[in-house]
Amino acid sequence: MALPSSGPLSLSQIQTEFGGTNPISLSEYYGAASGIPASGTISINNFYGASAGPAQSGLQNYFDMSVSAANGGSTVTSSSISDLSGNSSNATRGSITTYQNSTLPFYVSTKNIGGDIDFNIGNLTNNNGVCTVELWARITEDDNTVWHGFNQYDIYHRGSSTSPQEFGFNLWNNDIWGPSTSTSQALNWPDAWKHWVFIYNSSTSTTQSVLTATRQSNLLYVNAVSQTLAQDGSPSSANNSRCKFNNNGQTLGDYRLGDELQRSSGTVYSTDMDVAIVRTYNRALTASEISNHFNLEKARFGIS
Questions:
Q1: Per CATH, which fold does 59-301 belong to?
Q2: What is the DSSP letter of 223?
Q3: Contact 174, 195 (CB under 8 A)
Q4: How much is the mean pLDDT over the chain?
Q5: Which of 257, 246, 287, 221 is nearest to 39 (CA)?
Q6: Quick one: average pLDDT of 115-133?
Q7: Cα separations in angstroms, 171 against 179, 264, 285
Q8: What are the sequence ranges of the domains in the chain?
Q9: How many helices and strands, by DSSP H and E, does the chain display?
Q10: Alpha carbon of 193 to those of 5, 78, 136: distances in Å?
């Protein structure tokens, strides 16, 4: 429940909302929610209307498989995962995915060729041509694969889980906008739970320079740290219709984890990954919001 937006507000109310230890100190709550500073001067006034939960503005989907439905998580059945956003847009589980719910954190796994999870982002209009995909995921096997994506606008990794190379935003023809090989290796992502935030920008243009600028405005955060991205490979003119969501302009549609949608070549691009939390937004999350989400949930994944 959000804190009051006006009137009296006490330290004990802040502690009830955000947790913490006694004696209460506001410095415990740096970056605890959107609008609360991450450093420097902090006061009670910064907490009016603040909430310990994930950001709600622009939220399209929210799936939490890390805890049971009885404890506030999504209901996971053999074929679906319930949406907690209030938009009633449940995810579809591929038939060969598995659900691990014996030890925390729980998760759904896309292991096995073709295992995937489809998220319909509500077909809601995105007037700004921007969306955020936020994941708590553990990538367990990955050899030149697509981690997730829209139809031909995706996150692609060139390399293997034992020898990571470049990964990032891809328009199908082997071009990548993402961290360098050395940065990818330093992130130490194989077989480790990570908080991933991908901010996609789209364009209906078919002009190469416009599409390049659009894709190069995309952002990537790993464990709340913004990553330096660079171009690897050159997009070809064949990609000029792909820098958009589902080849459908500014409308958000299907988003798939673990496999690419409608790969026409017949090549298998599946990724084995364990997925615990997914949120999508029809806007770009701020750095403060991303930090807040990471700090709220990191303990579930053994991150101090």
A1: Jelly Rolls (2.60.120)
A2: T
A3: no
A4: 81
A5: 287
A6: 66
A7: 16, 14, 23
A8: 11-47, 59-301
A9: 4, 17
A10: 35, 24, 7
